[in-house]
Protein backbone atom coordinates (compact mmCIF):
# COMPACT_ATOMS: atom_id res chain seq x y z
CA UNK A 1 0.00 0.00 0.00
CA UNK A 2 2.82 2.34 0.89
CA UNK A 3 4.58 1.50 -2.38
CA UNK A 4 1.45 2.38 -4.39
CA UNK A 5 1.23 5.77 -2.70
CA UNK A 6 4.87 6.48 -3.51
CA UNK A 7 4.33 5.52 -7.16
CA UNK A 8 1.22 7.74 -7.39
CA UNK A 9 3.13 10.63 -5.82
CA UNK A 10 6.01 10.16 -8.26
CA UNK A 11 3.63 10.15 -11.22
CA UNK A 12 1.92 13.28 -9.97
CA UNK A 13 5.26 15.09 -9.66
CA UNK A 14 6.26 13.99 -13.17
CA UNK A 15 2.92 15.19 -14.58
CA UNK A 16 3.23 18.53 -12.75
CA UNK A 17 6.77 18.99 -14.04
CA UNK A 18 5.76 18.13 -17.62
CA UNK A 19 2.81 20.53 -17.47
CA UNK A 20 5.03 23.30 -16.15
CA UNK A 21 7.49 22.83 -19.04
CA UNK A 22 4.62 22.83 -21.55
CA UNK A 23 3.26 26.08 -20.12
CA UNK A 24 6.72 27.65 -20.25
CA UNK A 25 7.16 26.66 -23.90
CA UNK A 26 3.69 27.96 -24.80
CA UNK A 27 4.39 31.29 -23.12
CA UNK A 28 7.73 31.56 -24.89
CA UNK A 29 6.05 30.91 -28.24
CA UNK A 30 3.41 33.56 -27.52
CA UNK A 31 6.09 36.05 -26.54
CA UNK A 32 8.06 35.26 -29.69
CA UNK A 33 4.96 35.69 -31.82
CA UNK A 34 4.19 39.06 -30.24
CA UNK A 35 7.77 40.26 -30.68
CA UNK A 36 8.11 38.98 -34.25
CA UNK A 37 9.35 41.68 -36.61
CA UNK A 38 6.91 42.42 -39.46
CA UNK A 39 8.05 41.40 -42.93
CA UNK A 40 7.84 45.05 -44.07
CA UNK A 41 8.18 48.14 -41.88
CA UNK A 42 7.30 51.80 -42.37
CA UNK A 43 11.02 52.66 -42.23
CA UNK A 44 11.71 50.28 -45.11
CA UNK A 45 8.90 51.76 -47.20
CA UNK A 46 10.25 55.25 -46.55
CA UNK A 47 13.81 54.20 -47.41
CA UNK A 48 12.77 52.41 -50.59
CA UNK A 49 10.71 55.40 -51.72
CA UNK A 50 13.65 57.75 -51.20
CA UNK A 51 15.98 55.40 -53.09
CA UNK A 52 13.59 55.13 -56.03
CA UNK A 53 13.20 58.91 -56.19
CA UNK A 54 16.97 59.26 -56.72
CA UNK A 55 17.07 57.06 -59.82
CA UNK A 56 17.12 58.02 -63.49
CA UNK A 57 13.66 58.01 -65.01
CA UNK A 58 11.85 58.75 -61.75
CA UNK A 59 10.41 62.02 -63.07
CA UNK A 60 8.64 60.10 -65.86
CA UNK A 61 6.53 58.14 -63.38
CA UNK A 62 3.05 59.43 -62.53
CA UNK A 63 1.08 58.71 -59.37
CA UNK A 64 -2.22 57.96 -61.14
CA UNK A 65 -0.53 55.70 -63.68
CA UNK A 66 1.29 53.82 -60.92
CA UNK A 67 -2.04 53.21 -59.18
CA UNK A 68 -3.52 51.99 -62.48
CA UNK A 69 -0.48 49.76 -62.99
CA UNK A 70 -1.03 48.09 -59.62
CA UNK A 71 -4.60 47.23 -60.64
CA UNK A 72 -3.43 45.96 -64.03
CA UNK A 73 -0.77 43.71 -62.49
CA UNK A 74 -3.28 42.32 -60.01
CA UNK A 75 -5.70 41.47 -62.81
CA UNK A 76 -2.89 39.77 -64.76
CA UNK A 77 -1.90 37.57 -61.80
CA UNK A 78 -3.01 34.00 -61.17
CA UNK A 79 -5.43 35.29 -58.54
CA UNK A 80 -6.99 38.13 -60.50
CA UNK A 81 -9.94 38.42 -58.09
CA UNK A 82 -7.64 39.35 -55.19
CA UNK A 83 -6.33 42.80 -54.31
CA UNK A 84 -2.63 43.42 -53.74
CA UNK A 85 -2.74 42.70 -50.01
CA UNK A 86 -4.63 39.44 -50.46
CA UNK A 87 -2.39 38.30 -53.32
CA UNK A 88 0.82 38.94 -51.39
CA UNK A 89 -0.59 37.24 -48.28
CA UNK A 90 -1.30 34.17 -50.38
CA UNK A 91 2.25 34.14 -51.73
CA UNK A 92 3.79 34.70 -48.29
CA UNK A 93 1.54 34.77 -45.21
CA UNK A 94 1.52 38.22 -43.63
CA UNK A 95 3.49 39.98 -46.38
CA UNK A 96 0.55 41.91 -47.84
CA UNK A 97 -0.88 42.76 -44.43
CA UNK A 98 2.48 44.03 -43.18
CA UNK A 99 3.08 46.02 -46.37
CA UNK A 100 -0.25 47.84 -46.31
CA UNK A 101 0.15 48.54 -42.59
CA UNK A 102 3.58 50.06 -43.31
CA UNK A 103 2.28 52.44 -45.99
CA UNK A 104 0.72 55.51 -44.32
CA UNK A 105 -1.81 57.87 -45.85
CA UNK A 106 -1.95 59.95 -47.94
CA UNK A 107 -0.74 57.97 -50.94
CA UNK A 108 2.28 59.67 -52.49
CA UNK A 109 4.21 58.88 -55.64
CA UNK A 110 7.02 57.27 -53.62
CA UNK A 111 4.67 55.05 -51.64
CA UNK A 112 2.71 54.12 -54.74
CA UNK A 113 5.95 53.18 -56.52
CA UNK A 114 6.86 50.85 -53.65
CA UNK A 115 3.43 49.20 -53.86
CA UNK A 116 3.79 48.91 -57.64
CA UNK A 117 7.15 47.19 -57.15
CA UNK A 118 5.49 44.63 -54.88
CA UNK A 119 2.70 44.16 -57.42
CA UNK A 120 5.33 43.53 -60.09
CA UNK A 121 7.95 41.44 -58.28
CA UNK A 122 5.90 39.72 -55.56
CA UNK A 123 7.95 38.01 -52.86
CA UNK A 124 11.20 39.14 -54.55
CA UNK A 125 10.29 42.83 -54.20
CA UNK A 126 12.40 43.50 -51.12
CA UNK A 127 15.44 42.06 -52.85
CA UNK A 128 14.99 44.27 -55.93
CA UNK A 129 14.23 47.39 -53.90
CA UNK A 130 17.29 46.89 -51.71
CA UNK A 131 19.77 45.85 -54.39
CA UNK A 132 18.70 47.48 -57.64
CA UNK A 133 16.26 50.41 -57.29
CA UNK A 134 17.35 51.68 -60.72
CA UNK A 135 16.07 48.47 -62.30
CA UNK A 136 12.78 48.89 -60.46
CA UNK A 137 12.28 52.44 -61.76
CA UNK A 138 13.26 51.34 -65.27
CA UNK A 139 10.75 48.48 -65.23
CA UNK A 140 7.94 50.61 -63.77
CA UNK A 141 8.57 53.26 -66.41
CA UNK A 142 8.46 50.63 -69.17
CA UNK A 143 5.22 49.22 -67.82
CA UNK A 144 3.74 52.70 -67.61
CA UNK A 145 4.75 53.48 -71.19
CA UNK A 146 3.36 50.14 -72.39
CA UNK A 147 0.02 50.93 -70.78
CA UNK A 148 -0.06 54.31 -72.52
CA UNK A 149 0.78 52.68 -75.84
CA UNK A 150 -1.97 50.10 -75.46
CA UNK A 151 -4.49 52.84 -74.72
CA UNK A 152 -3.37 54.78 -77.81
CA UNK A 153 -3.42 51.61 -79.89
CA UNK A 154 -6.99 50.79 -78.90
CA UNK A 155 -8.05 54.37 -79.70
CA UNK A 156 -6.25 54.32 -83.06
CA UNK A 157 -7.65 50.89 -83.88
CA UNK A 158 -11.22 52.01 -83.22
CA UNK A 159 -10.66 55.04 -85.43
CA UNK A 160 -9.18 52.81 -88.12
CA UNK A 161 -12.14 50.44 -87.96
CA UNK A 162 -14.47 53.36 -88.62
CA UNK A 163 -12.52 54.19 -91.75
CA UNK A 164 -13.93 51.89 -94.44
CA UNK A 165 -10.86 52.48 -96.58
CA UNK A 166 -8.71 50.66 -94.08
CA UNK A 167 -10.27 47.27 -94.81
CA UNK A 168 -8.50 45.09 -97.33
CA UNK A 169 -5.32 47.14 -97.13
CA UNK A 170 -2.32 44.82 -97.55
CA UNK A 171 0.00 47.29 -95.87
CA UNK A 172 -1.60 47.08 -92.44
CA UNK A 173 0.90 48.82 -90.09
CA UNK A 174 0.11 46.31 -87.33
CA UNK A 175 0.90 43.25 -89.47
CA UNK A 176 4.49 42.90 -88.25
CA UNK A 177 3.49 43.44 -84.62
CA UNK A 178 0.85 40.71 -84.85
CA UNK A 179 3.36 38.33 -86.41
CA UNK A 180 5.82 39.08 -83.60
CA UNK A 181 3.13 38.57 -80.97
CA UNK A 182 2.23 35.17 -82.41
CA UNK A 183 5.88 34.19 -82.37
CA UNK A 184 6.29 35.23 -78.71
CA UNK A 185 3.34 33.03 -77.75
CA UNK A 186 4.54 30.17 -79.95
CA UNK A 187 1.49 30.32 -82.22
CA UNK A 188 0.81 30.34 -85.94
CA UNK A 189 -1.29 32.77 -87.92
CA UNK A 190 -4.98 32.01 -87.57
CA UNK A 191 -4.70 30.76 -83.99
CA UNK A 192 -8.04 30.75 -82.20
CA UNK A 193 -8.81 32.80 -79.09
CA UNK A 194 -8.81 29.59 -77.07
CA UNK A 195 -5.33 28.69 -78.35
CA UNK A 196 -4.08 32.20 -77.61
CA UNK A 197 -5.41 32.08 -74.04
CA UNK A 198 -4.01 28.60 -73.37
CA UNK A 199 -0.57 29.57 -74.63
CA UNK A 200 -0.63 32.81 -72.64
CA UNK A 201 -1.58 31.05 -69.40
CA UNK A 202 1.10 28.42 -69.88
CA UNK A 203 3.83 31.00 -70.50
CA UNK A 204 2.90 33.37 -67.67
CA UNK A 205 2.89 30.43 -65.27
CA UNK A 206 6.48 29.75 -66.27
CA UNK A 207 7.73 33.36 -66.39
CA UNK A 208 5.68 35.12 -63.67
CA UNK A 209 7.97 37.28 -61.45
CA UNK A 210 5.98 36.20 -58.37
CA UNK A 211 7.35 32.71 -58.97
CA UNK A 212 10.92 33.73 -59.74
CA UNK A 213 10.53 34.28 -63.48
CA UNK A 214 11.94 37.07 -65.62
CA UNK A 215 10.05 40.36 -65.42
CA UNK A 216 11.20 41.23 -68.96
CA UNK A 217 9.90 37.98 -70.42
CA UNK A 218 6.66 38.32 -68.49
CA UNK A 219 6.17 41.85 -69.84
CA UNK A 220 6.88 40.66 -73.39
CA UNK A 221 4.33 37.84 -73.05
CA UNK A 222 1.71 40.23 -71.64
CA UNK A 223 2.24 42.75 -74.43
CA UNK A 224 2.04 40.03 -77.09
CA UNK A 225 -1.22 38.79 -75.59
CA UNK A 226 -2.68 42.31 -75.47
CA UNK A 227 -1.61 42.91 -79.08
CA UNK A 228 -3.44 39.80 -80.26
CA UNK A 229 -6.57 40.77 -78.32
CA UNK A 230 -6.51 44.25 -79.84
CA UNK A 231 -6.22 42.85 -83.36
CA UNK A 232 -8.69 40.01 -82.91
Describe the structure.
It contains 11 helices and no strands. The model is unreliable at 164-176 (pLDDT under 50). It folds into 3 domains: 1-36; 42-139, no CATH class; 173-232, DnaJ domain (Helix Hairpins, Orthogonal Bundle), CATH 1.10.287.110. Helix 6 packs across helix 7 and helix 10 packs antiparallel against helix 11. By secondary structure, the protein is mainly alpha-helical.
Low-confidence stretches: 164-176
The percent of residues in helical segments reads: over 70%
Indicate how many domains the architecture comprises: 3
- SSE order, as H and E? HHHHHHHHHHH
Q: Which descriptor suits the 3D outline?
A: elongated
Largest sheet: none
Strand count: 0
Could you tell me how far the N terminus lies from the C terminus, measured between alpha carbons in angstroms?
92 Å
Rounded to the nearest angstrom, the radius of gyration is: 27 Å
Mean pLDDT: 79
Beta-strand percent range: under 5%
Brief write-up:
The protein is an all-alpha fold and 232 residues long. It has helices at residues 2-35, 42-53, 63-76, 84-91, 95-102, 109-121, 125-131, 133-162, 175-184, 193-207, 215-230.
Q: Any descriptors?
A:
232 residues, mainly alpha, 3 domains, 11 helices
Write the layout of secondary structure elements.
Layout: H1 2-35, H2 42-53, H3 63-76, H4 84-91, H5 95-102, H6 109-121, H7 125-131, H8 133-162, H9 175-184, H10 193-207, H11 215-230
Helix pairs in contact: 2-6, 3-6, 4-5, 6-7, 8-11, 9-11, 10-11
